[in-house]
């Protein structure tokens, strides 16, 4: 018997035969043809004659990247083996010098915070709208981008996240027009939207709407392996030499050929079968939603019920469990422990599930049965007004977020002396870390922001409800700047 904790657990996880709705999009290999999913270790090679070099591609990698650029509608595509994170970081570093402003959505992934630190850029935040029915942040509006551009004519670029973790896609056509009318570069973190280019029934891709740099996590929604991502460039606004240099600096000098192989495989599968299989899962999901919502116990986020101008990706299922009188965190736990179903993430009111070309009518029927069964369970936490209390708190936090005070640029806070203190003692202090519920990976605190009592309560409530918060010590302490 080998003593291999990680390997042993992962083998057991695969053998549980869970109905999985989390990334990576190949769903434990179910979305990849058998002949392309075998003998992985034989793909684990290095830069020798014929295998090319990611940081100076002239052969098979150059060819594969060219095929990807054509498939996704880019002028040039870079393969990323360190995930979308390194692509976001490299994009920011390539368009912003130290002290320059970056207009960025405050709903951005934590990679934007690290990109600000690495580049020395200073953020100008724009804030997403808030949907009270689902208690989630939704779209960044063109109006908010226009106001930020007008107030900050010296900004170097604009960065938005689209789709967000809930599959919500803002009006990128209008945002692109506004950004380019002022001669700025538009960066789109499209980590959750690599599949959008392969169906006319999905929201349009960022590249088709004028994004200059677009970063996609292939492993999230395509049949690729974890850490596989693409960085696409369209047009001549970005400095290609600087971008290539930064990617080579941020990525491993020993890139994984397994990851690169599956970036190539995912593109091929989507070009061959993606349109047909996406059509199928969109139709299956539509029927699933109809049946799930029949008795009103569940609500599903859709383009028609958000009360905004954005659209929602129908392959991303956001199911509100308020009707059961429990939190999304509890629903996630019950589904895994009692109903052999693993979702992608949960929040106070919702569970989020990723469906991809690897899903089938059978997997969706299993999910529907599990959710129907859960309606009959008794829950200890069930309270009459729990939903109203939680919704009020989330709404207050959203209002606080719009008035958050960035006392120092993130890079200055990063370089300052720090002190670790209990979370409850941090009110009024300057945050030193990126404090992030994970998933979805969107910081509730950036380095340099002043910590207020509502944010402390919000973090405490996430932890109490069963969520995970990265950037804090295991004992619940938080790092702040020394006074």
From TrEMBL:
<comment type="similarity">
    <text>Belongs to the Orn/Lys/Arg decarboxylase class-I family.</text>
</comment>
<dbReference type="Pfam" id="PF01276">
    <property type="entry name" value="OKR_DC_1"/>
</dbReference>
<keyword id="KW-0663">Pyridoxal phosphate</keyword>
<dbReference type="InterPro" id="IPR052357">
    <property type="entry name" value="Orn_Lys_Arg_decarboxylase-I"/>
</dbReference>
<dbReference type="Pfam" id="PF03711">
    <property type="entry name" value="OKR_DC_1_C"/>
</dbReference>
<dbReference type="InterPro" id="IPR015421">
    <property type="entry name" value="PyrdxlP-dep_Trfase_major"/>
</dbReference>
<dbReference type="InterPro" id="IPR008286">
    <property type="entry name" value="Prn/Lys/Arg_de-COase_C"/>
</dbReference>
<dbReference type="GO" id="GO:0008792">
    <property type="term" value="F:arginine decarboxylase activity"/>
</dbReference>
<protein>
    <submittedName>
        <fullName>Arginine decarboxylase</fullName>
        <ecNumber>4.1.1.19</ecNumber>
    </submittedName>
</protein>
<dbReference type="InterPro" id="IPR015424">
    <property type="entry name" value="PyrdxlP-dep_Trfase"/>
</dbReference>
<keyword id="KW-0210">Decarboxylase</keyword>
<feature type="domain" description="Orn/Lys/Arg decarboxylases family 1 pyridoxal-P attachment site">
    <location>
        <begin position="4"/>
        <end position="294"/>
    </location>
</feature>
<keyword id="KW-0456">Lyase</keyword>
<feature type="domain" description="Orn/Lys/Arg decarboxylase C-terminal">
    <location>
        <begin position="416"/>
        <end position="461"/>
    </location>
</feature>
<dbReference type="InterPro" id="IPR000310">
    <property type="entry name" value="Orn/Lys/Arg_deCO2ase_major_dom"/>
</dbReference>
């Amino acid at each position: 018997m080998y003593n291999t904790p990680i390997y042993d657990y992962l083998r057991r996880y695969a053998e549980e035969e869970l109905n999985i709705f989390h990334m990576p999009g190949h769903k434990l290999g179910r979305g990849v043809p058998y002949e392309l999913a075998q003998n992985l270790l034989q793909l684990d090679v290095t830069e020798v004659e014929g295998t090319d070099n990611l940081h100076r591609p002239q052969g098979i990698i150059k060819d594969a990247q060219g095929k990807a650029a054509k498939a996704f509608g880019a002028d040039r595509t870079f393969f990323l083996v360190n995930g979308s994170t390194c692509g976001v970081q490299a994009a920011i570093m390539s368009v912003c010098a130290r002290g320059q402003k970056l207009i960025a959505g405050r709903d951005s992934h934590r990679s934007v915070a690290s990109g600000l630190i690495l580049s020395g850029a200073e953020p100008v935040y724009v804030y997403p709208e808030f949907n009270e029915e689902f208690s989630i942040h939704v779209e960044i509006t063109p109006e908010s981008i226009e106001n930020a551009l007008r107030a900050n004519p010296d900004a170097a670029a604009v960065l938005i996240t689209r789709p967000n973790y809930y599959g919500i896609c803002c009006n990128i056509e209008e945002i692109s027009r506004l950004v380019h009318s002022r001669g700025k570069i538009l960066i789109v973190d499209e980590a959750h939207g690599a599949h959008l280019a392969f169906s006319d029934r999905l929201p349009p891709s960022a590249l088709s709407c004028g994004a200059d740099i677009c970063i996609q996590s292939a492993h999230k929604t395509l049949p690729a392996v974890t850490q596989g991502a693409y960085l696409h460039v369209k047009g001549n606004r970005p400095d290609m030499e600087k971008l290539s240099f930064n990617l080579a600096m941020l990525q491993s000098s020993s890139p994984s050929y397994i990851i690169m192989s599956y970036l190539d495989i995912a593109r091929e599968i989507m070009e061959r079968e993606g349109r047909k299989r996406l059509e199928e899962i969109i139709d299956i999901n539509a029927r699933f939603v109809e049946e799930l919502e029949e008795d009103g116990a569940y609500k599903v986020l859709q383009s028609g019920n958000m009360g905004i101008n954005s659209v929602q990706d129908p392959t991303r299922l956001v199911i509100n469990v308020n009707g059961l009188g429990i939190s999304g965190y509890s629903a996630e736990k019950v589904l895994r422990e009692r109903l052999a179903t693993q979702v992608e993430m949960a929040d106070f009111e919702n569970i989020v599930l990723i469906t991809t070309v690897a899903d089938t009518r059978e997997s969706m029927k299993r999910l529907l049965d599990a959710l129907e069964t859960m309606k009959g369970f008794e829950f200890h936490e069930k309270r009459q007004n729990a939903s109203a209390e939680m919704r009020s708190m989330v709404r207050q936090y959203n209002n606080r977020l719009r008035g958050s005070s960035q006392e120092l640029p993130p890079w200055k806070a990063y370089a300052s002396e720090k002190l670790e203190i209990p979370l409850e003692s941090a009110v009024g202090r300057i945050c030193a870390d990126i404090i992030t519920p994970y998933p979805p990976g969107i910081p509730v605190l950036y380095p340099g922001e002043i910590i207020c009592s509502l944010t402390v309560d919000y973090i405490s409530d996430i932890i109490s409800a069963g969520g995970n918060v990265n950037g804090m010590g295991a004992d619940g302490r938080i790092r702040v700047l020394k006074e």
